[in-house]
Amino acid sequence: MTDAKLRTIMVATDLSERSDRALDRAVMLARAHDARLSVVSAVDGAYPPALRDEFTARVRQHLDHARPGDDVVTTIHVEAGDVVEILLRHLNGPEVDLAVLGVHRTRTFLDGLRQTTMERLVQGVRKPVLLVRDLATGPYARALVPVSFSPSCAAALAAVAQIAPGASCRAVHAWLVPFGGLTGGAGSEMAPAVEAETRALAEDWAARLPAGLPRPVLVHGGVVEVLERELATVAPDLVAIGAHTRPGPALHPLGGFAAELIRRPPCDLLVTRGR
Fold this sequence. Notes:
By secondary structure, this protein is an alpha/beta fold. The chain has two domains: about 10-130, HUPs (Rossmann fold), CATH 3.40.50; about 140-270, Rossmann fold (3-Layer(aba) Sandwich), CATH 3.40.50. It has ten helices and ten strands. The protein has helices at about 15-35, 50-65, 85-90, 110, 115-125, 150-165, 180-185, 190-205, 225-235, 255-265; strands at about 10, 35-45, 75-80, 100, 130, 140-145, 170-175, 215-220, 240, 270. A ten-stranded mixed sheet has the order 3-2-1-4-5-10-9-6-7-8, with helices on both faces. InterPro entries: Rossmann-like_a/b/a_fold, Universal_stress_UspA, UspA.
């Protein structure tokens, strides 16, 4: 995402209220960027043929009626088959710059046993993915970006600058003194050295960022603790994260931090990958 404006935005919808919010945000972004809008919906191919064909026709008719005005060039795709396969094929189209999705519908028991459909989609999409939780009442105003000095976090900052150029953007990095219970944590003799090392890493990473992107602020604390404090202080309407920023195998393909935010986003969530 290096161009100043988006050219094609694709939004997936299942006609739910969650998807309606995603569609509204996608339309708003398409107007702001003078971008083409592509709407895709998948009907489960497991339905009996007659019912499947009826659902497909009804979905297409509904989306035709819901088209935005003539100021947004819109194409509509409705297919029956494997839902995830269809959506990934369209969302990964070479012309797509941004994928927009509604948030995951919580299933408390099942979510604890398996990867959610939303996680599978975000994991499979190779473009930046915007998960829309809230009503689109205007352009994004405040963005929060937790960073870990990775390429995907740099991509998150660049993506925020692209889709929310008028928003204030705060990048934060959480750092901790190892074995805080034994060493004394932030007040220990180790703390200045650990902070200095972390600051050097931050400065080296920030020096390689494109001009105009915010430099990270170092905040002492665990990742979840710092995020909760920042959410309360900044009150962002957009959080952006890099997916799976640690090398090597992981329990969650997207990274545990990213997977948890995808399941329970505090606001609209932008997920990016490194190049």
